[in-house]
Specification:
Low-confidence stretches: none
Keywords: ATP-binding, Ligase, Magnesium, Metal-binding, Nucleotide-binding
Largest sheet: 7 strands, mixed
Family: Belongs to the 5-formyltetrahydrofolate cyclo-ligase family.
Pfam family, one: 5-FTHF_cyc-lig
Structural class: alpha/beta
Shape: globular
Distance between the termini: 26 Å
Number of helices: 5
Number of strands: 11
Mean pLDDT: 90
CATH class: Alpha Beta
GO molecular function: 5-formyltetrahydrofolate cyclo-ligase activity; ATP binding; metal ion binding
Number of domains: 1
Protein name: 5-formyltetrahydrofolate cyclo-ligase
Strand content: 15-25%
């Protein structure tokens, strides 16, 4: 399916993801994203600080990666939405830390010692394609975060059903370097 209207694709993607997650066997859902595939672990081997996110609704349950990342010695952080203009910072986080409500149903750690700079940003996706284009919620938060942290690895995480033949990309959209689904790890192809 090729759609050029991002909002129309977002609507379709949300429903498609919702239906897929509802159809998953509960055991399959609980096991999804529990382990780090070897290529993913190699890709982030040099990353000291890895940004995750608190999933909303039926987004890929990325926090399941936290234990494996912590076992690798990674410092974890979560985003905190600052304003409605796409401002977002990353705050250090441990699994036992209390989370506080943020805008748009988000949750984040207490600001504490202030923001950290991630070496790898794992972002939620509504859709993706094999050219590493991503479709987000449309607020530009991750696009701005990628631009503010240009050296950080850009990794998307999604359910496999969220793959499309082509995702429309604007000139300001930075492509991902890898995508992790419950069935595969897709890396950017470099020529």
């Amino acid at each position: 399916m090729i759609l050029t209207d991002k909002q129309a694709l977002r609507d379709i993607a949300r429903q498609r993801r919702r239906n897929f997650v509802a159809s998953l066997d509960p055991l399959a859902h609980r096991l999804a994203f529990k382990a780090l595939p070897s290529p993913f672990a190699r890709m982030i081997a040099d990353a000291e600080t890895v940004a995750l996110y608190v999933p909303l609704d039926d987004e890929a349950p990325v926090l399941r990666l936290a234990a494996a990342l912590t076992d690798m010695g990674k410092t974890l952080c979560l985003p905190r939405v600052i304003d409605r203009l796409g401002g977002m910072e990353f705050l250090r986080w441990r699994k036992e830390d209390q989370l506080y409500p943020g805008p748009f149903g988000t949750s984040h750690p207490e600001p504490g010692i202030g923001p950290v700079a991630p070496d790898a940003i794992i972002a939620p996706l509504l859709g993706f394609d094999r050219r590493m284009n991503r479709l987000g919620q449309g607020g530009g938060y991750y696009d701005r975060a990628f631009a503010r942290h240009p050296e950080a690895l850009r990794i998307g995480i999604a359910w496999s059903i969220q793959e499309y033949e082509e995702v429309p990309a604007d000139v300001w959209d930075l492509p991902l370097q890898a995508i992790l689904t419950e069935v595969e790890f897709i890396e950017e192809v470099t020529a």
